[in-house]
Write a structure and sequence with these properties.
The chain is mainly α. It has nine helices and no strands.
Amino acid sequence: MLVYFLQGLTLGFSAGVQPGPFLAYLLNQTLALGARRALPFALAPLGSDGPIIAVVLLTLTHMPVGFLRVLQVVGGVFLLYLAFRAYQTARANVTLTARAMQTGFMTAVLMNTISPGPWIFWSTVGGPLLIEAWRLSTGQALSFLFGFYLTLLGSFIGFILVFATAQRLEARLTRALNDVAALVLLGFGLYQLWRGVLGG
């Protein structure tokens, strides 16, 4: 059981610290909302990964190339939209409401669901390991998942707390960081579109 737990810890940490659109989104939301309100967004993978894992385990095979390319196009367009929203956030005072908070969390879940990254990970690395652990025992599989999400979500929470220090900086620097987040989202969005349309 310890072997699969340690594998989960390692894979979760490596996935959590990789630069990507989700981290850029967390930066943008932390600057806009503050750490306390942005922390729930770190749990978005718990809402998005369930259906992904279920589909991968039911098919017991890798995702078709065409399916991943469709995800790349859809995800790219969505990231461009988020980049525009991040750019707007840097230049506006956002009034927070419960509805806005719920929308932000659902946006994070949707971003993960239509991103090719989780699909590729669970169909090529996580899925086979989970099946292997499950064949040994339910406890082995659960220990793998627990280890994975412990470090994955822990990494995201850590980043949010680090990003929150930027909130205390002067407004010009905070706006610059928000612009960086928007540029990162824009870059990932264009890259996803390029991969999806041209198959690069």
